[in-house]
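Morning run. Coffee first, then this:
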Amino acid sequence: MVRKGILQEIFSKALYADNPSAYIVTYRDHENYKRIALDEFILLSENFQLIPASRIISVELHGQILYEKN
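And here it is:
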């Protein structure tokens, strides 16, 4: 699903123990950045098949950055 580490932990918690629509994912789409809710991202990416986890720039929850790519 997602490469191991903090990103996997965030997504696991969001999907199974929290509200995934509260999490905002920013990802790279060609030359642009897009921000959508995690549950929409999962559907759009077809469970990370069309949009790999490596294109995720950041994940936020209520304005707090939980993950940010360096």
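The first helix runs from residue 6 to 17. Good start to the day.
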